[in-house]
Every structure is written in C-alpha cells, then in structure tokens.
C-alpha cells in the first residue's frame, strides 16, 4: 500500500475552484458537485447555488475533479 496516496492523486490543488470561479477559501456546495456529476460532458448547466459562475460548461475533466472532491468530502480523517 502506498503511503499518502491522496497527495499523489491531487495533481493540481485548487483547480476546480478556478474552473468554477469560486474563491479558494470557500467550500464548494454539494448541490453544485452533484449537478456537475449528474450532467453529461458537453452540457451547459445552471448553477443551483449563489456561489461562482452562473452557467457552467461541463467537461470530462471538471466531472472527474467533482467526483474526486465528492469522494474526499465523504472520507473521515
């Protein structure tokens, strides 16, 4: 088993914040993450929250980053 596998899995910390135009110190809402994951790649979704961009073009990379963030949020420390 590799020690510190999460640090190796995260290549660009803060990149999803930049893509969604959410300030670095604030949390990304779960409703937004679920909306991104539920949408197909290439779709444009409306942001269900008041934080960040109003319309988001979902790419495969953004979807993968959202899945990783949702999984890491659910982990216990």
Would you give an account of this structure?
This protein has 77 residues and is mainly alpha-helical. It has one domain. It is built from four helices and two strands, in the order H-H-H-E-E-H. Helix 3 crosses helix 4.
What's the helix and strand layout?
Blueprint: H1 5-9, H2 15-20, H3 30-38, E1 44-46, E2 55-57, H4 60-74
Antiparallel strand pairs: 1-2
Helix pairs in contact: 3-4
What order do the helices and strands follow? HHHEEH
Number of domains: 1
* Main sheet attributes: strand count, strand direction, barrel closure: 2 strands, antiparallel
Low-pLDDT regions: none
Task: Count up the helices.
Answer: 4
On the 0-100 scale, what is the average pLDDT? 90
How many E-type strands?
2
Q: Whole-Å distance between the termini?
A: 18 Å
A few lines on this structure:
The protein has 77 residues and is mainly α.
Features:
two-stranded antiparallel ribbon, single chain, 45% helix, 77 residues
């Amino acid at each position: 088993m590799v020690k510190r596998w999460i640090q190796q899995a995260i290549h660009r910390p803060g990149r999803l914040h930049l893509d969604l135009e959410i300030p670095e110190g604030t949390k990304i809402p779960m409703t937004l993450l679920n909306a991104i994951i539920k949408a197909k790649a290439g779709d444009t979704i409306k942001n269900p929250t008041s934080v960040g961009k109003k319309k988001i073009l979902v790419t495969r990379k953004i979807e993968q980053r959202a899945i990783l963030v949702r999984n890491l949020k659910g982990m216990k420390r």
